[in-house]
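Pilot study result, target chain (183 residues):
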Amino acid sequence: MRALPIAVVAAAAALTLTACDSGGSSSDSDGGKKASTASSAAASTACKIDQIGIQVGPANAAPAAGDTGNVPVTLTNKGAECTLQGFPAVKVLDGGTGTDVPEEKSATPPKLTLAASGTASFTITYVRGTAGDGKSLAATTLKIGLPGAATTQSFKWSYGPLAGKNGPTDPNASVSSFQPAGD
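Predicted structure:
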């Protein structure tokens, strides 16, 4: 009869000690273990572009030079649950020359978890430039990447030249952070 209570106490002690272990292999203080474990988990669940379907548009295109247009981009997760945090990497090119589209300054990016088949979106806002103007970029290609990844997907840019603030490599455009989409 005494064997049962001793076994229960031993099992409870083992579970308590296991619960205190952060699972990390770092010899730093507990705070260091928790931080390294959390960043490893976040990195391992980050969405990968080869498992994301991307749809560009339909756009609210700027009809004339000086007008503002918006290009919505929808991402659909085609893999396992993953997370998006930060801003997409967006670049516009006119053949060989290209420039990064800056992040929207006032945006605070949320951390989004995308379930399998889940969707998120972001918006590219731009001012249409004048064709042949030295300050505009005659964009023909749009490249989109995910935060922290070097790989991108390319799409046709059919919304006219991008106005530059000071020149073609300083676009009068911005990209929003990822936002939840759908239901």
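One observation from the pilot: Residues 1-43 have pLDDT under 50 and may be disordered. A full batch analysis is planned for the follow-on phase.
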